[in-house]
Amino acid sequence: MTSSTYTGPAVFGYETDKPRRVASISVHTSPLATLGGKDAGGMNVYVRELTCHMAELGLPVDVFTRRTDPDTPEILEICDGVNLISITAGPPEPVDKNQLFELLPEFAEQMALYSLRTGVRYDVVHAHYWLSGWAAHLLKRYWNTPFSLMFHTTAHMKNVVSPETEHETQLRSLIESKLVHLADSLIAANPDEAADLIWREHCDSAKLCTIPPGVDTDLFRPLDREACRRELGIASSEQMVLFVGRIDPIKGLDTLLDAANYLKAHGSPARVHIVGGDFGVDGAPVGPLAGLAAVAEERGITDSLVLWGSQPQNRLPVFYSAADVVSVPSRYESFGLVAVEAMACGTPVVASRAGGLIFTVEDGYTGFLTPIGDGTAHGRRIFELLENEELRRSFGRAAHVAASRFSWPAVANSILHVYERLAEGHRANLCCEDEIFAGAV
Asked: Among 43, 84, 98, 250, which one is most buried in terms of CB atoms within 10 A?
């Protein structure tokens, strides 16, 4: 990555009915954040991949995020045609996302000042997550620009499956309900989310499109299993179960530990490799990962776990290809990016029957779906795949083929259609006819 100055064609006074440049907003997390860390996961990948593929289609994008480091350059080039703009709003340091709402007026004001200072105009705004959605709404006082919003997760759907101590704030629920009606366009990641927005929030279905995130099928592809295991230092004979994701209760880590306990109790020598979380300077796990390790020790299954910490995205295919089974025990997933990445690498998935996972994992064909929070059922299905190589290979082949429908070019084209309709002045019938989940709601 190198710093880049603005080189796009759109300037104030140049009017067009086609989008010339898009402003993408990701207030609380940068698309360049290390995956598996705090607040860094599938959404970061989504923003980065979508904007880069949009630029490949000829539409440059500026991604706006809140500055968390005083030394970060104002402008960084993510890929050709995509700039990451760090906006100073509040202290230039990490701030808990639940404390960011009060900083959004300043964030929107500084975005507007940036566009004035650089002479850039935007024809469409694409906001990611509720905080960015409110920032996009506040920008209406400065720009007469339509905005599209993707929640990625909603407070209601998370609260349904989370313990009360992990519930999202009432403020978030209130703002999300308002944004459903304030946004010019809404993009849902799966048909269940779209149905919830229509029936519970009374969203106008004419402005709602169901478009899943994508997967980089050039990066995520089957690699040689033995070569990957040698690279990771894993024995060829080891039974390897893989988890990739944030160390967060919503990711179902309790279910994963229950499944690991089931495997050990039934004589399986399998080890569960966990990619995600952080280590301190002394090499010991810290934060949520330390908590997970402590619980594993209490249960006597420490020897069944291997902790890797967060890993760069370009190394994940090595882990997926080395694994026998990938576990996705989440209590809620708007899409299930890890599941699709694993499938693209030809590795079968055992996932909870939650949110978008129902639509990405084909039960009994590309993997297995298990009841949410049922570690015994989850462990039983993993055990079944570990003990049946023929079934494992069959699921892996089918998974690789099934993942192809989520390629980024297809997803980017569907969202480009939404941008074009918004830029042309339309506020209804925004969806592409060959949408990946067309007609599913």
From this structure: 84
